[in-house]
Amino acid sequence: MLALIQRVERASVSVGGEVAGSIGAGLLALVGIEPGDGPAQVERMARRLLGYRVFADGAGRMNLGLCDTGGGLLLVSQFTLAADTSRGMRAGFSTAAPPDEAEPVFNLLVETCTRVHEGRVETGVFGAHMKVDLVNDGPVTFLLRS
């Protein structure tokens, strides 16, 4: 499992012109599910998403995680994140979990983060063509692996 996280001032995701999820200050996480990902990877990724220190403390250092700030978390499934880009000029998707395997894993990640995090947890629509709007704060962007 991969998550490209961005510290944001705000972020939203729309499907067909309708907002599916939106947050204020917090994290936008684009999530790629790989074959074989399951509950163990979900638990580790949830801990990392909620605890990864990307927010400034009183001294201006990145020492606080999302759980410390109570900020929002916008989770967006993005199978292209798990693509194989090592050869040629076109990505291969055999390294991404097929939709019927990926969707329950993504849903478990959403459920886990919602259960653990006291802040707002929002999502896009799994498998839909989405428009993501965000204001990256920093910019601060990290790629996490479970």
TrEMBL record:
Q: List the subcellular locations.
A: Cytoplasm
Q: Which InterPro entries match?
A: Daa-tRNA_deacyls_DTD, DTD-like_sf
Quick one: a GO biological-process term for this protein?
Answer: D-amino acid catabolic process
Q: What are the record keywords, sorted?
A: Cytoplasm, Hydrolase, RNA-binding, tRNA-binding
EC number of this enzyme = 3.1.1.96, 3.1.1.-
- Work out whether the entry's keyword set contains tRNA-binding: yes
Sequence motif: Gly-cisPro motif, important for rejection of L-amino acids, positions: 138-139
Q: What class of enzyme is it?
A: hydrolase
Q: What's in the GO CC field?
A: cytoplasm
Q: Which SUPFAM superfamilies match?
A: DTD-like
Q: Tell me any Pfam family this protein matches.
A: Tyr_Deacylase
Record bears the keyword Kinase: no
**Which reactions are catalysed by this chain?**
a D-aminoacyl-tRNA + H2O = a tRNA + a D-alpha-amino acid + H(+); glycyl-tRNA(Ala) + H2O = tRNA(Ala) + glycine + H(+)
Q: What is known of its domains?
A: A Gly-cisPro motif from one monomer fits into the active site of the other monomer to allow specific chiral rejection of L-amino acids.
Quote the PANTHER family the UniProt record gives.
D-AMINOACYL-TRNA DEACYLASE 1 (PTHR10472:SF5), D-TYROSYL-TRNA TYR DEACYLASE (PTHR10472)
Family, according to the entry, reads as follows: Belongs to the DTD family.
Q: What role does it play?
A: An aminoacyl-tRNA editing enzyme that deacylates mischarged D-aminoacyl-tRNAs. Also deacylates mischarged glycyl-tRNA(Ala), protecting cells against glycine mischarging by AlaRS. Acts via tRNA-based rather than protein-based catalysis; rejects L-amino acids rather than detecting D-amino acids in the active site. By recycling D-aminoacyl-tRNA to D-amino acids and free tRNA molecules, this enzyme counteracts the toxicity associated with the formation of D-aminoacyl-tRNA entities in vivo and helps enforce protein L-homochirality.
Subunit and partners? Homodimer.
Protein name, per record:
D-aminoacyl-tRNA deacylase
